[in-house]
Design brief:
It is a single chain. By secondary structure, this protein is an alpha/beta fold. Helices cover 49% and strands 18% of the residues. Strands 13, 14, 15, 16, 17, 18, 19, 20 and 21 form a 9-stranded mixed sheet that branches. It has a 5-stranded antiparallel sheet with strand order 2-1-5-4-3, with helices on both faces. It has a 5-stranded mixed sheet with strand order 7-8-6-11-12, with helices on both faces. Strand 13 and strand 14 form a beta hairpin. Helix 3 crosses helix 5. The chain is elongated, with a radius of gyration of 58 Å. It starts with 23 loop residues before the first helix and ends in a 10-residue tail after the last strand.
Length: 681
């Protein structure tokens, strides 16, 4: 069946040719009505041309003898193609075209016009419906294809994700366990089996029952606390009962509705790190050689014990120093010395094993023993005897040799709650030093009165270096009987007490500061004696340590050269206590060669000292205070002529003035006044 000329053409082509007279009013009403029902991206002018052409085509179709529905179908399809598919687009089209076609002037003579109009409009509606159906099918196909593509991509992504998870799960170095909500193990990876030492093929055996119960409890507690992740360090048990430590991250896995579905536990083995940490902690708090606690461990323990002390309970602290360890090290070697110290540590621990006690190494060859006393704790003397007996047992240092050990001990027993730990340690240590002053293998009990007497001296000794640096110790000079200029050290205290020259030297020897102090004194004394107008020689008294200093003669030479002082104007008084060794005898000989006038002090009357006086031929010998008593004075009276027979002057050392008359009567040549006037240099 052929189509009627002037039927509608595709929307993207030129508008159909007009057939017969045009009816603009109908096209105008139709285009405006369509614009109100839907939006079309085509321009309004182009739509109008299409609409006018479609009206012309419909008129031609109704008047044609060869009547067909295809042109009307095409117009219905055009409506869909032009996007006029609103809810009222088709109805509006029928409402506009129906009356217009029935009353169209060109169709007045057409027979059966009403039927034809109904048929044409029905065909247009059918074309519209068919186009809509095809459009829906096309869109459904596109949606289906898009869904299939998305489904395929999703399945591929899911597969890739599962593959990645499976790869991570199976090859990860950390252990992974998946548990259901009841806490039962669903799956475990090979790394978890290796960490816990179980077979991966038997997932039920990967965890020890108590370890799985602990994970289950933690999982349920995590849910109750509304947490999705918790971290902790946990202990696990291996198949042989060995201890395994791991960092555990426990997490909740939720489904698409955010409901908990699984628990995932990720375990990282930290057994080696924990063992290393414990080892380093032990090393930090224990002595490497003996394994005993060190100071960092002992002092907090002592503070804790003192803090909880309740009267009448007491604690006992023993500070112990092993005798002659330097001799052991030099004679038998340091390895033997280490064996001895290890044996001492072991025996001390055994000696107080029945007590609530801690034995610690204070350092070197010193140990401390702290006992929390009980009704059965022995007395101090019994403890000392028990420890002494334990230490004096022979110690085997190698396969062929043994040695014996002794120690000095200082004990403190107190019931003072909250006492200062460091004060208690100081009291025990000072008591030990007092015991060692009596000789080897001695012990002493803390005496508050003796400690109070000794503390000021020790405080002076300890603060001497600071006083020297601050310039609080200075030199004073005094001319004696227009014979000699004495150079003495003077240290004035804040309370106006004065530390004399001899005391400063003794304290310096005790701390090891006398030699630099004496060197400075020598330099100052030589400079003062070399000043213009000064004619007296200068007398400098040295300590025992300085008297045997191998560098003494070099220091004297520098002081003389630097000041320009003649050697015979330096009177150097050396201590006989420092001249027993080879260095002291060498100093006497070299000083004599330099022309320095040597004096000797600290004379006790011993035969060795008299021999030194005879061999060295000193310029003078200082006679110290003579003890009261007829025998002592008779001995001193007999000693003066012997000393003078060597050609030496016999002078008085620093005296109180009480013996001056008697000293003159026995032939002492020169008295050094005890309290000379001060002249600061």
């Amino acid at each position: 069946m052929s189509t009627i000329p002037g039927a509608a053409q595709p929307s993207d082509g030129p508008p159909p040719p007009e057939v017969g007279p045009a009816h603009p009013p109908t096209g105008e009403r139709w285009s405006r009505a369509l614009a109100r029902t839907a939006y079309s991206p085509t321009s309004r002018r182009r739509i109008r041309r299409h609409v006018d052409g479609h009206v012309t085509a419909l008129v031609a179709l109704l008047g044609a003898e060869d009547f067909t529905a295809e042109p009307a179908h095409a117009i219905g399809a055009w409506l869909v193609e032009s996007r006029y598919t609103g809810p009222h687009s088709l109805q509006t089209t029928v409402d506009v075209l129906g009356p217009a076609l029935r009353t169209h002037p060109d169709l007045v003579d057409v027979p059966d016009l009403e039927d034809r109009v109904v048929f044409v409009l029905g065909a247009l509606a059918a074309g519209y419906a068919n186009a809509v159906r095809e459009q829906i099918f096309e869109e459904q196909e596109r949606v289906r294809n898009a869904l299939l593509l998305t489904l395929g991509e999703t399945q591929q992504s899911l597969h890739d994700s599962e593959a990645r998870f499976r790869q991570v799960f199976s090859s990860s170095a950390v252990g992974i366990a998946i548990l259901d909500l009841a806490g039962a193990l669903v799956e475990a990876n090979p790394a978890l089996a290796r960490i816990l030492g179980h077979e991966v093929d038997a997932p039920d055996e990967v965890f020890a029952p108590e370890d799985l119960d602990a994970l289950r409890t933690s999982s349920h507690a995590m849910l109750a606390a509304l947490d999705d992740t918790t971290r902790s360090e946990r202990r696990f048990t291996g198949p042989a009962g060995d201890e395994i430590w791991a960092n555990v991250v426990l997490s909740v896995v939720r489904d698409s509705d955010e409901r908990p579905k699984y628990f995932v536990a990720v375990l990282e083995d930290v057994t080696d790190q924990r063992q290393l940490r414990e080892y380093l902690r032990f090393q930090a708090l224990h002595d490497v050689l003996t394994g005993l606690p060190n100071w960092q461990s002992f002092l907090p323990h002592l503070e804790k014990v003192l803090g909880k002390l309740r009267t009448p309970n007491t604690v006992t602290l023993c500070y112990l120093d092993v005798d002659s360890t330097a001799l052991l090290n030099d004679g038998l070697g340091y390895r033997a010395g280490d064996r001895v110290l290890t044996a001492v540590a072991r025996r001390l621990s055994a000696a107080v094993a029945d007590e609530a006690a801690m034995v610690a190494r204070a350092g070197g060859d010193e140990f401390v023993v702290l006992i929390e006393d009980s009704p059965t704790t022995p007395s101090i003397s019994e403890l000392a005897a028990r420890i002494d007996a334990a230490l004096t047992e022979p110690v085997e240092v190698d396969s062929t040799r043994t040695t014996a050990v002794s120690a000095g001990m200082g004990f403190v027993r107190t019931s003072a709650r909250g006492a200062d730990a460091m004060t208690l340690v100081r009291q025990a240590h000072s008591t030990l030093r007092r015991a060692e002053a009596k000789g080897k293998r001695q012990w002493a009990y803390y005496d508050h009165d003796l400690d109070a007497l000794d503390r000021p001296r020790l405080e002076l000794v300890a603060t001497l270096p600071g006083a020297l640096a601050a310039g609080e110790v200075y030199t004073e000079f005094h001319a004696v009987d227009d014979v000699v200029l004495t150079a003495r050290l003077r240290w004035e205290q804040p309370d106006d007490t004065v530390v004399t020259h001899g005391e400063v030297l003794l304290q310096g020897d005790e701390l090891g500061h006398t030699i630099p102090l004496g060197d400075a004194l020598l330099t100052q004394a030589c400079a003062r004696a070399a000043e213009p107008g000064e004619h007296l020689p200068v007398l400098v008294r040295l300590s025992p340590d300085h008297s045997r200093d191998p560098d003494l003669t070099a220091t004297v030479g520098r002081a003389l050269t630097g000041s320009g002082l003649a050697p015979d104007r330096l009177w150097l008084s050396l201590s006989l206590r420092g001249l027993h060794g080879e260095e002291g005898q060498d100093n006497l000989a070299v000083l004599a060669d330099l022309g320095v006038k040597v004096l000797l002090h600290d004379l006790s009357g011993a035969l060795a000292e008299l021999s030194t006086v005879e061999s060295s031929r000193p310029h003078a010998v200082a006679l110290g205070p003579v003890p009261e008593g007829a025998l002592a004075r008779a001995a001193a009276t007999a000693l003066v002529p012997l000393l003078r027979a060597t050609g030496a002057l016999v002078i008085a050392d620093e005296t109180t003035g009480e013996q001056d008359e008697w000293l003159r009567s026995v032939g002492v040549d020169l008295l050094l006044p005890p309290q000379p006037e001060i002249e600061e240099y």
